[in-house]
């Protein structure tokens, strides 16, 4: 599956934003404006000015809607949520080639709030996945004590864990030890 740079970057941002939520098996990592500034810097979200509690609350709302897309049981349900996200953001598609990247599309309006920026660009990235018929690639980790979101970009759509070195390996080692105990009897 060929995914352009800007779409991949937006998908990574969606996943990282979702993984700040308590549903990912940890404490909320986006609890104050400073944490939101850190998130914006880490993801190089452009055109963001001063952030406030209002921005934080709006981003929490966007995060919840992204989680609804990942949890959607079918593409129609996912599309309805994505359409709400993108429409509320007031998208204004623009071609740009900033920061050494080739031409790509930004969907947020100039001067948009950080929540509208995330809703527009990340919402359109999720729309790309649904349009491509690849919604099943939007997943949550199958480890019982996890819940982190990820986009399965494996060739055969077989990824089950957010990270095979941590969650996947931990479960495989536990299964191996259980088999050994059972064999030892």
Describe this structure in words.
By secondary structure, the chain is mainly alpha-helical. It has one domain (5-135): Jann2411-like domain (Jann2411-like fold), CATH 1.10.3300.10. Strands 1-2 form a two-stranded antiparallel sheet. It has a two-stranded antiparallel ribbon with strand order 3-4. The radius of gyration is 18 Å and the shape is globular. The mean pLDDT is 89. Helix content is 52%, strand content 6%. The longest helix is centred in the C-terminal third of the chain and has 21 residues, at 164-184.
Question: Secondary-structure blueprint of this entry?
Answer:
Elements: H1 5-18, H2 33-42, H3 53-71, H4 75-89, E1 94-96, E2 104-106, H5 114-131, E3 138-140, E4 149-151, H6 164-184
Antiparallel strand pairs: 1-2, 3-4
| Low-pLDDT stretches | none
Distance between the termini: 47 Å
The number of distinct helices, counting runs of at least 4 residues, comes to: 6
H/E topology pattern? HHHHEEHEEH
Cα shape: globular
Q: Residue-averaged pLDDT, rounded?
A: 89
CATH homologous superfamily assignment: Jann2411-like domain
CATH topology, what is it called? Jann2411-like fold
Helical fraction equals 40-55%
- For the biggest β-sheet, the strand order reads 1-2
Structural class: mainly alpha
User: What percent of residues are in strands?
Assistant: 5-15%
Q: Class, according to the CATH hierarchy?
A: Mainly Alpha
């Amino acid at each position: 599956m060929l995914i352009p740079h800007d779409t991949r970057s937006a998908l990574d941002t969606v996943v990282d934003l979702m993984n700040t939520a308590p549903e990912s098996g940890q404490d909320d990592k986006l609890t104050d404006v400073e944490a939101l500034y850190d998130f914006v810097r880490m993801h190089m979200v452009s055109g963001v000015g001063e952030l406030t509690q209002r921005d934080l609350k709006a981003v929490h709302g966007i995060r919840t809607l992204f989680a609804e897309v990942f949890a959607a049981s079918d593409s129609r349900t996912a599309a309805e949520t994505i359409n709400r996200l993108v429409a509320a953001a007031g998208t204004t598609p623009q071609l740009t080639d900033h920061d050494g990247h080739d031409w790509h599309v930004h969907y947020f309006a100039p001067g948009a709030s950080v929540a509208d920026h995330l809703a527009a660009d990340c919402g359109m990235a999720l729309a790309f996945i649904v349009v491509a018929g690849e919604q099943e690639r939007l997943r949550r980790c199958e480890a019982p004590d996890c819940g982190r979101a990820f986009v399965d970009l494996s060739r055969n759509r077989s990824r089950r864990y957010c990270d095979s070195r941590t969650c996947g390996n931990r479960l495989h080692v536990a299964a191996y030890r259980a088999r050994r105990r059972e064999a030892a009897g």
